Amino acid sequence: MDNILENKEKTPLTALGEFGLINHLTKDITIKNKSTILGVGDDAAIVDGKQQCMVVSTDLLVEGIHFDLHYSPLKHIGYKAIASNLSDIAAMNAKAEQVLVSIAVSNRFSVEAIDELYSGIYACCEKYGVDLVGGDTTSSVSGLFISITVLGYTTKRKITRRSTAKENDLICVSGDLGAAYMGLLVLEREKKVFLENPEIQPELDAHSYILERQLKPEPRLDIVDELKRCEIVPTSMIDISDGLASEILHICEQSGKGCVLYENKIPIDTKTYTTALEFGILPSIAALNGGEDYELLFTIKQKDYENIQEIANVTIIGYIRDKASGCSLITYDNKAISLTAQGWDAYLKEKPEKREKRE
Amino acid sequence: MDNILENKEKTPLTALGEFGLINHLTKDITIKNKSTILGVGDDAAIVDGKQQCMVVSTDLLVEGIHFDLHYSPLKHIGYKAIASNLSDIAAMNAKAEQVLVSIAVSNRFSVEAIDELYSGIYACCEKYGVDLVGGDTTSSVSGLFISITVLGYTTKRKITRRSTAKENDLICVSGDLGAAYMGLLVLEREKKVFLENPEIQPELDAHSYILERQLKPEPRLDIVDELKRCEIVPTSMIDISDGLASEILHICEQSGKGCVLYENKIPIDTKTYTTALEFGILPSIAALNGGEDYELLFTIKQKDYENIQEIANVTIIGYIRDKASGCSLITYDNKAISLTAQGWDAYLKEKPEKREKRE
């Protein structure tokens, strides 16, 4: 009756990758409503509510792709699902006020398991003053799926898009990078040990900082507040979910600009640094390509240079330049290399060991 | 490491059912933001945008639960996913203007298959003047998952909730009922025939009306427009996704009222009627308990009785009474029987043959 699923002479999804697929699917959209200020292509869409602007963002999280119940407690999964969406709203320089949460669960989950998940969802909503206002619950044939939609508010003047970075703007990042990725590697290593011998207790205590960054990330709403206090409106902003390299390339591409990043300026916590070396990974590679840090990456005008020093935990790591000059990383030994994104891609960039397991 | 999935002495999800689970998960919510006017519990949440109110609703659709690729073309699945969400916004007496669409797909889907899905999504957005403004695409380990969020607008005065029906209000329904359910039964029968002998062509032509009602439902935005033209603001409204009985019980329960429905007033198309008899089902049972009609069920003040006659395809089927008198159906032979909901329940009400197949 229906042969659309036969893959003969069809294009595999991997040929496009996630961003390619999004572009492919949305390239012909034309906006029909006045209330639609900005559609697909940023951390959130923008809809008009007279004086205020509403921003709205949505994410779909899939068991086995975005989280692994072998090492992520359900409470943490719920917390992180909300946190990562609040981060999208923060990246628009807005304050999240409502979320809608939908779940599809197979019958291997009990009510108590779903309660665990929701306890994390509510904990994050509570911490950041967000109302859960809707959603959907349904069954799935297998696995857990979580869809989150978040609504946030700001004024038209304060909204920060990805596409508005200007030449000579300073590139800033909050907090430190690479920790969540190193946390993931530790969890995967301990999972492997556990699966081989369930008697062995996982060695996790020494890694509590990076594990917390992976399992229970916090959206940087404090940075949004601080920017407001210091009267800085970033010229562009994005949250780091896919890795620094991928995100700065998004800003540059959408702004029609190039950039220079300095490897020695990238903020990396000592714990991240030592764990990366333990795994034989260059710490700056973890920071550039490891995802899920949920820090904010933003650009400011040079005139805000003094002002930005007032905000703790913000580091200037480079500057925006013209498009023709390209996007470069200046390495520790002062060489300029081309920046490429190897960030999280739900289709392409599965880690080799993960791909092997599934085949 | 994590034993939350072990079901020993845990409560199975089936013990609660879908509505029970929603209540269980959301009963302790308190609203934190002024912009949140109404949260969980209606067709959509209501958020304030000064003069206008925004309504927002979300749905998660799961392959094997909400749709079956054996008989639903992907284009229709996409169309219906949007249509059913626009119906939720119509049920708030609002106009939908933006949607966000997230999909999780396994690698058995090709780009062409996803294009088919989106062609239906875009066709419905185009038909109803809605902007697609965001979403998420990711992979799933197996199956197709579609999450839709829709934003709509109306004024505070015009919003129609479920909880505001008053005694003696007239109960109205748009269009005719039971068609989508009979369409589903025909498709399931033909699927069975096809699976047993793929050479046999399905006999679908004679059933085009009910098949279209199942595969490509249309949200009744025309009724919202007509209500506006006739200056009628319903006292309550809901869309019929789970069956007439289930929906009127939602209105009565949330309004703290009872009701009387007249079996002989329930609008049923001739095609639905004859197909129901062919399957040995009482046509009014199909109308009362069959879901997915996406017609609007609403209550109006008695003073609007004359006015409502101006709208084609609206039928008065009963009235609201006090809670203590309960919810009754007056049958063809003039007996009063208690109304009970046997509508679609994603956890409990799988058809027996479906459940067998999965076990």
Number of domains of chain A: 2
How many H/I helical runs of chain A? 11
| Strand and helix order of chain A | HEEEHEHEEEHHHEHEHHEHEEEH
**Gross morphology of chain A:** globular
Distance between the termini of chain A: 29 Å
Secondary-structure-based class of chain A equals: alpha+beta
- Poorly predicted regions of chain A are 344-359
Largest sheet strand order of chain A: 8-10-7-11-9-12-13
Largest sheet of chain A: 7 strands, mixed
CATH C-level class of the largest domain in chain A: Alpha Beta
CATH homologous superfamily placement of the largest domain in chain A: PurM-like C-terminal domain
Portion in beta strands of chain A: 15-25%
Overall strand count of chain A: 13
Kindly report the CATH topology of the largest domain in chain A. Answer: Phosphoribosyl-aminoimidazole Synthetase, Chain A, domain 2
The most extensive interface, with participating residues per chain, is: A-B, 98 and 98 residues
The whole-number mean of residue pLDDT values of chain A reads 85
CATH architecture of the largest domain in chain A: Alpha-Beta Complex
Oligomeric state of this protein: homodimer
